[in-house]
Design a protein that fits this description.
Elements (H helix, E strand, L loop, with lengths): L3 E5 L3 H13 L3 E5 L2 H10 L4 E5 L7 H9 L9 E5 L5 H9 L4 E4 L4 H11 L7
Parallel strand pairs: 1-2, 1-3, 3-4, 4-5
Length: 127
């Protein structure tokens, strides 16, 4: 059974890009666009990894990340935070303090995203 990845981004183009990229690598992908949808998706099936945009309507990704990491059912699920807004190292620090395992800046290199995913899932990958 393929590993399952939950992609959380309100931009359809990013959802499509990540869905295609991850599916090509053999992962099962579910895409949602908000914190409420994250909660619903996780109640249905806990993913093996979450890729989470920081800038979302309503709750931001840092709040959602902290909630995932403070929940007994999801605390060990790796989270990759991603953002197009990166003004200072404090932005990344806030994400990592919320429990994120990686912090990626958009636009990202596909090879870097796949490398991060494979690393966090404990899978071999090319460097």
């Amino acid at each position: 059974m393929p590993k399952r990845i939950l992609v959380v981004d309100d931009e359809k183009a990013i959802q499509t890009l990540l869905s295609e990229l991850l599916a090509h690598e053999g992962y099962g992908v579910t895409c949602v666009a908000s914190g409420a949808e994250v909660d619903a998706a996780i109640k249905e099936d806990i993913p093996d990894l979450v890729i989470l945009d920081v800038s979302l309507p309503g709750e931001d990704g840092i709040v959602i990340c902290a909630r995932l990491k403070n929940n007994m059912a999801t605390m060990n699920v790796p989270v990759i935070l991603m953002t197009a807004k990166y003004d200072s190292v404090d932005d990344a620090r806030a994400g990592l303090n919320a429990g994120a395992d990686e912090y990626v800046i958009k636009p990202f290199l596909n090879s870097v995203m796949i490398g991060n995913v494979k690393h966090l899932l404990g899978e071999p990958h090319q460097r």
